[in-house]
TrEMBL record:
It comes from Cryobacterium psychrotolerans. It comes from the Bacteria. CDD domains: HTH_ARSR. One of its GO terms (molecular function) is DNA-binding transcription factor activity. This is Transcriptional regulator, ArsR family. NCBIfam families: HTH_metalloreg.
Amino acid sequence: MLKESPDLNLMFQALADPTRRAMVDRMTRGPASVSDLARPFAMTLAAVMQHLKVLEQSGLVRTQKEGRVRTCRIDPAALRSAEDWIAERRTTWESRLDRLGALLDED
């Protein structure tokens, strides 16, 4: 069984917000500047930076500043740990439901 870590808690808290999920979705297609990430949202650049800060603190996103441009990218290893946690629960429940189905078929 995977050990639950505080980082995993931070990841799911970060992903609970639809704006941050949309930002993560955009970054799965490749690195993006802060202004690229801000474009689809009706919010200030400061608000976008707050969302990015939460994503960075969760470990899901890494940023790098070159000159005046801050580039954001997904950390695949962090995303994978959340995926692994979900997959483990899915496997457990699929196994339980298969056993239940087998029991019901016997009757």
